[in-house]
Write a structure and sequence with these properties.
Largest sheet: 10 strands, mixed
Radius of gyration: 24 Å
Strand order of the largest sheet: 1-2-4-3-5-6-7-8-9-10
Oligomer: single chain
Length: 518
């Protein structure tokens, strides 16, 4: 095989630095295209792996990043047009047989998807649509500004966005540790108000400006790619992790896709390829899976029905699903205030104070007799092992004395020794008349876990989850622009409140690779 670097011209003449790795031999090959803002050099081993299996493999720096000139504006239309131009360039090469698979993880998955959806309804086959790939692999996809900046229920993802913008925003290269260094110099950095002007304070620690920070919060259009995907006809492989904050976007993309769609949901987080231990425990070789799936997709061998596999935590077992993950096969209800459900320990009435928020980076719970800052509940030990695969939800009957209130639910699994392991989390924002009781539904994401006998479930209901999420000021003002904070008194009524978990009633274990590739 041989590797070379070329410049691929976009319609406006911008040359995009592109590494091309070709297998030995002269016959035309299918191609794999990765467009990334994180540096094409990081994909050299991946390109060689694809080439070893007979694919022409390309990694390209997106406009304005690393080896490609121009200005980079995250999630702008240039990713779509630049991707289409690159696909057209690939198809014009003598080493190409015309077949192209767009591949990417995180922001690179966004690049792959917008290229694939440039002409919704495009179908793979012997006649290729100009600029549109024939199949797409989207791993831990970051689907857009709104999806990455805010939870589906409204609250702002402060820590993740501040970290990403500090590392990658408004610069041509990356500095992954930028936020950590800034916090070491200014530990209260993320408490800065208003959030919209956090970049001004962050600039001091970074030594550079972040002019694009306000635009991140101005965009509120959610679900555009999922909606476009419903009209697509090309095959999709959506790879997500149950510990990835964008897992629900991955599931929604798979669930709504119009063409043959496969879902692989493993026991890892957003740094998919870096989590080698999770990949090993899940007993899956992603590289081999990608190659086998791409061959099946390009050959038109995929069953048009929707298939998926969800890892049951670190057990090495996978549960197969042939339909949308929700509703689950069997939903088990744990009522609040019940000796067989979730027993109330304290905090039926508590105070959500943004000056002293419940923290996202601390799994410890208060054990003293001070004022309650959360509602705390605990289940009895599980009498037998429990497999969970599907969507979880908390339904709570609650009251807040402020016009705006965030409701954060954190579910933790406690093993018999008391060791805490995060199980599920969800947060929603509700606005309404102060003091009015409401039935609040908090989605807790898609679970894939095996809980051993003796496990207890601990549920926390709080008003904040900081610094992962920006603090709700409780004044009714937009949390992004607010400068004044107020405490909020909360009441959780155990009657009518319950935790709903997706229990696998009939264990249908599958091998992930054959399940995804059939």
């Amino acid at each position: 095989m041989n590797t070379r670097t070329v410049s691929v011209l976009t319609p406006d003449g911008t040359p995009l630095a592109t590494d091309v790795c070709l297998p030995d031999g002269d016959r035309p090959r299918p191609a794999v295209l990765i467009r990334t803002p994180y540096g094409r050099d990081a994909h050299r081993a991946e390109l060689r792996g694809w080439a070893a299996h007979g694919f022409a493999a390309l990694a390209q720096d997106v406009r304005g990043r690393h080896g490609s000139p121009g200005e980079w504006h995250p999630y702008r239309d240039h990713e779509r047009t630049d991707g289409a131009a690159t696909v057209a360039w690939v198809r014009a090469q003598t080493w190409s047989n015309g077949e192209v698979v767009a591949v990417g993880a995180s922001y690179a998955a966004y690049c792959a998807l917008v290229t694939a959806l440039d002409a919704p309804g495009a179908a793979p086959g012997p006649v290729h649509r100009e600029g549109v790939p024939d199949a797409v692999i989207a791993a831990v996809p970051a689907l857009g500004l709104t999806e990455t900046a805010r939870e589906p229920g409204g609250p702002e993802r402060l820590w993740a966005r501040a970290g990403w913008w500090a590392a990658h925003g408004d610069r041509s290269d990356s500095d992954p540790d930028a936020l950590e260094r800034a916090l070491a110099d200014d530990p209260r950095l993320l408490e800065h108000l208003p959030v919209a002007r956090l970049a001004e304070r962050l600039a001091t620690g970074l030594g550079r400006e972040l002019p694009s920070w306000p635009r991140l919060w101005a965009d509120r259009q959610r679900g555009r790619l999922v909606a476009l995907g419903s009209a697509a006809r090309l095959p999709l492989l959506a790879v997500g992790g149950t510990r990835d904050p964008f897992a629900e976007d991955t599931v929604a993309l798979w669930r709504g896709w119009g063409g043959p769609a496969r879902l692989l949901l493993g026991p890892w987080g957003h740094r998919l390829t870096a989590d080698r231990s999770a990949l090993a425990r899940a007993r899956v070789n992603l590289g081999a899976l990608y190659v086998r799936w791409a061959r099946a997709a390009l050959a038109g061998r995929l069953d048009p029905a929707r298939h998926g596999a969800i890892a049951l935590g670190d057990s090495g077992r996978w549960h197969g699903t042939h339909r949308a993950v929700s509703p689950p096969e069997t939903e088990r209800r744990w009522p609040f205030g019940s000796p067989t459900g979730l027993r109330l320990l304290h905090g039926a009435e508590f105070s959500a104070d943004p000056e002293r928020p419940v923290r996202s980076d601390d799994l410890a719970v208060p054990v003293d007799g001070g004022p309650a800052d959360r509602c705390l509940l605990l289940s009895p030990p599980l009498p037998r092992p429990l497999d969970l695969a599907g969507a979880a939800v908390a339904r709570i009957n609650a009251t807040a004395d402020t016009p705006s209130a965030d409701w954060a639910v954190r579910l933790t699994a406690l093993d018999p020794s008391g060791r805490a392991d995060p199980l599920a989390f969800g947060i929603v924002r509700r606005t309404g008349p102060p003091g009015e009781a409401a039935e609040i539904t908090v989605p807790l994401g898609t679970l894939g876990r095996r809980l051993p006998a003796g496990t207890r479930l601990r549920a926390e209901i709080a008003g904040h989850h900081f610094p992962a999420h920006a603090r709700n000021p409780h004044t009714g003002d937009d949390p992004v622009t607010a400068t004044r904070l107020a405490p909020s008194r909360r009441t959780v009524n155990p009657r009518g409140s319950a935790l709903h978990l997706p229990v696998v009633a009939r264990r249908r274990y599958v091998e992930p690779v054959p399940e995804i590739c059939r």
